[in-house]
């Protein structure tokens, strides 16, 4: 993720870029913070992904991880979270 020169080279790479990088970068750029440059945002996202990966892997192996796409309305995302929580509480 650190170097985007010549990236993406394949359709699947482009789709992954759109899903994991482009949307958050555009959202964060709209915040208007003076330190929100494309490069600093990419670095923050990279740091976040690297730091959270062991936790995601751990709970994924235990079958206790649910991935939810955080795109869409707040109400829609909340409803999906509630649905998954309700399934596990029963």
From TrEMBL:
Pfam families: ADK. Keywords: Kinase, Nucleotide-binding, Transferase. One of its GO terms (molecular function) is kinase activity. InterPro entries: Adenylat/UMP-CMP_kin (IPR000850), P-loop_NTPase (IPR027417). PANTHER family: NUCLEOTIDE KINASE. This is Adenylate kinase. It comes from Heterodera trifolii.
